């Protein structure tokens, strides 16, 4: 047991694995790499801000406190944390990588796997909720909020376990030949297991949506209402964008499992595939706000309030003797900045 802990804290172990799996570890901070890292960090900052606005909108308006929006909020939370994880991953890459201990390396990569798992399970929860709503299945009782929160908590617990398996022992620290080329401290069987689980869940989600569409097509007008179809189209777009963004990364991981060490040079470019996958976390909030007029109003409300407040302050600064002018009362200012904040939820939600 002591030898295991000594390997986890060894400062030379990461370098040993990178030297074995890669012909020449590309860890130099070249100008092009620095520019790419800066762009990725800016992208991740946009991801954090976008998803934070969605979470604020969901939290502050009680009309969004129902099943669908709770699950969308959970997806936004996983996307926000994914942005934070990608920022940390970028800052700890390059020349910093070979100075990490295995524990630090597992934390760096594991955080990305945890947020990815949470996103997949959030998509599954959304699909189940849509099936329940369309099929009129009475899955939830009077304590449905408690059950939804338990479901969300369970999805995060499973994600933590799945992402933490390597640091718990499922790694290749004692077996270099079993190491992944893309993720040199991860065992190939673990990578295959994770990709297989995600693929099975996504296939099940697709099958569930096909069943939902069949139910809608064969149902009466109340089930196939325009609002219901619009929301169903929205969550289907979210699923399609997720698959589109992550399919290249999943494919490169499957190729990694099949290829012997140093046999597939394309694996050395895997970071481009994962950078493309980060676009998913950027696009999700755009899809929510583009498809739902009510959510768009609530998300943009803080920005519009800030812009109006800045405009009032700017006019005061440009007016001579503005310090002598009476200030508007808070009630009149609020009246001038008032926006509708009572969106109807889901089936009554205004979709475009």
UniProtKB/TrEMBL annotation:
<dbReference type="GO" id="GO:1903142">
    <property type="term" value="P:positive regulation of establishment of endothelial barrier"/>
</dbReference>
<dbReference type="GO" id="GO:0098794">
    <property type="term" value="C:postsynapse"/>
</dbReference>
<dbReference type="GO" id="GO:0098793">
    <property type="term" value="C:presynapse"/>
</dbReference>
<dbReference type="Pfam" id="PF00001">
    <property type="entry name" value="7tm_1"/>
</dbReference>
<keyword id="KW-0807">Transducer</keyword>
<keyword id="KW-0675">Receptor</keyword>
<dbReference type="InterPro" id="IPR000276">
    <property type="entry name" value="GPCR_Rhodpsn"/>
</dbReference>
<keyword id="KW-1003">Cell membrane</keyword>
<dbReference type="GO" id="GO:0005886">
    <property type="term" value="C:plasma membrane"/>
</dbReference>
<dbReference type="GO" id="GO:0008528">
    <property type="term" value="F:G protein-coupled peptide receptor activity"/>
</dbReference>
<keyword id="KW-0325">Glycoprotein</keyword>
<feature type="transmembrane region" description="Helical">
    <location>
        <begin position="112"/>
        <end position="128"/>
    </location>
</feature>
<protein>
    <submittedName>
        <fullName>Sphingosine-1-phosphate receptor 2</fullName>
    </submittedName>
</protein>
<dbReference type="GO" id="GO:0030036">
    <property type="term" value="P:actin cytoskeleton organization"/>
</dbReference>
<keyword id="KW-1015">Disulfide bond</keyword>
<feature type="transmembrane region" description="Helical">
    <location>
        <begin position="266"/>
        <end position="287"/>
    </location>
</feature>
<dbReference type="InterPro" id="IPR004063">
    <property type="entry name" value="EDG5_rcpt"/>
</dbReference>
<keyword id="KW-1133">Transmembrane helix</keyword>
<dbReference type="GO" id="GO:0150052">
    <property type="term" value="P:regulation of postsynapse assembly"/>
</dbReference>
<dbReference type="InterPro" id="IPR004061">
    <property type="entry name" value="S1P_rcpt"/>
</dbReference>
<feature type="transmembrane region" description="Helical">
    <location>
        <begin position="35"/>
        <end position="58"/>
    </location>
</feature>
<feature type="domain" description="G-protein coupled receptors family 1 profile">
    <location>
        <begin position="50"/>
        <end position="288"/>
    </location>
</feature>
<comment type="similarity">
    <text>Belongs to the G-protein coupled receptor 1 family.</text>
</comment>
<feature type="transmembrane region" description="Helical">
    <location>
        <begin position="70"/>
        <end position="92"/>
    </location>
</feature>
<dbReference type="GO" id="GO:0005178">
    <property type="term" value="F:integrin binding"/>
</dbReference>
<feature type="transmembrane region" description="Helical">
    <location>
        <begin position="189"/>
        <end position="210"/>
    </location>
</feature>
<dbReference type="GO" id="GO:0046847">
    <property type="term" value="P:filopodium assembly"/>
</dbReference>
<dbReference type="GO" id="GO:0060079">
    <property type="term" value="P:excitatory postsynaptic potential"/>
</dbReference>
<keyword id="KW-0812">Transmembrane</keyword>
<dbReference type="GO" id="GO:0098978">
    <property type="term" value="C:glutamatergic synapse"/>
</dbReference>
<keyword id="KW-0297">G-protein coupled receptor</keyword>
<keyword id="KW-0472">Membrane</keyword>
<feature type="transmembrane region" description="Helical">
    <location>
        <begin position="149"/>
        <end position="169"/>
    </location>
</feature>
<feature type="transmembrane region" description="Helical">
    <location>
        <begin position="231"/>
        <end position="254"/>
    </location>
</feature>
<dbReference type="GO" id="GO:0090394">
    <property type="term" value="P:negative regulation of excitatory postsynaptic potential"/>
</dbReference>
<feature type="disulfide bond">
    <location>
        <begin position="172"/>
        <end position="179"/>
    </location>
</feature>
<dbReference type="GO" id="GO:0001664">
    <property type="term" value="F:G protein-coupled receptor binding"/>
</dbReference>
<feature type="disulfide bond">
    <location>
        <begin position="259"/>
        <end position="264"/>
    </location>
</feature>
<dbReference type="GO" id="GO:0038036">
    <property type="term" value="F:sphingosine-1-phosphate receptor activity"/>
</dbReference>
<dbReference type="InterPro" id="IPR017452">
    <property type="entry name" value="GPCR_Rhodpsn_7TM"/>
</dbReference>
């Amino acid at each position: 047991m002591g030898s295991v802990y000594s390997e986890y804290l060894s400062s030379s172990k990461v370098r040993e694995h990178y030297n074995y799996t890669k012909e020449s570890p590309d860890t130099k901070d070249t100008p092009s790499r620095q520019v790419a890292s800066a762009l990725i960090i800016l992208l991740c900052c946009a991801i954090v801000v976008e998803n934070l606005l969605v979470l604020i909108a969901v939290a502050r308006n009680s009309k969004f406190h129902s099943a669908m929006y709770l699950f969308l909020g959970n997806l936004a939370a996983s996307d926000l944390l994914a942005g934070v994880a990608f920022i940390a991953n970028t800052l700890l890459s390059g020349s910093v990588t070979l100075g990490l201990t295995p524990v630090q390396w597992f934390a760096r990569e594991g955080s990305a796997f945890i947020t990815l798992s949470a996103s997949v399970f959030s998509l599954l929860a959304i699909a189940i909720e849509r099936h329940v709503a369309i099929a009129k299945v009475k899955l939830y009782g009077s304590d449905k909020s408690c059950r939804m929160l338990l479901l969300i908590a369970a999805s995060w617990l499973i994600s933590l376990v799945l992402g933490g398996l390597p640091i718990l022992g499922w790694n290749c620290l004692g077996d270099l030949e079993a190491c992944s080329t893309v993720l040199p401290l991860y065992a190939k069987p673990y990578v295959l297991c994770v990709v297989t689980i995600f693929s099975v869940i996504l296939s099940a989600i697709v099958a569930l949506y096909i069943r939902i569409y069949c139910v809608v097509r064969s149902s009466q007008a109340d089930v196939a209402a325009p609002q219901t179809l619009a929301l169903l189209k929205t969550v289907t777009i979210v699923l399609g964008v997720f698959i589109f963004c992550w399919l290249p990364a999943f494919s490169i991981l499957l190729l990694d499992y099949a290829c012997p060490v140093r046999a597939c040079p394309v694996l050395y470019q895997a970071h481009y595939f994962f950078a493309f996958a980060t676009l998913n976390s950027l696009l999700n909030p755009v899809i929510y706000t583009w498809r739902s007029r009510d959510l768009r109003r609530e998300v943009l409300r803080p920005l519009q309030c800030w812009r109006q407040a800045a405009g009032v302050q700017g006019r005061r600064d440009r007016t001579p003797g503005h310090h002598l002018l009476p200030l508007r009362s808070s009630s009149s200012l609020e009246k001038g900045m008032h926006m509708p904040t009572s969106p109807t939820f889901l089936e009554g939600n205004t979709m475009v």
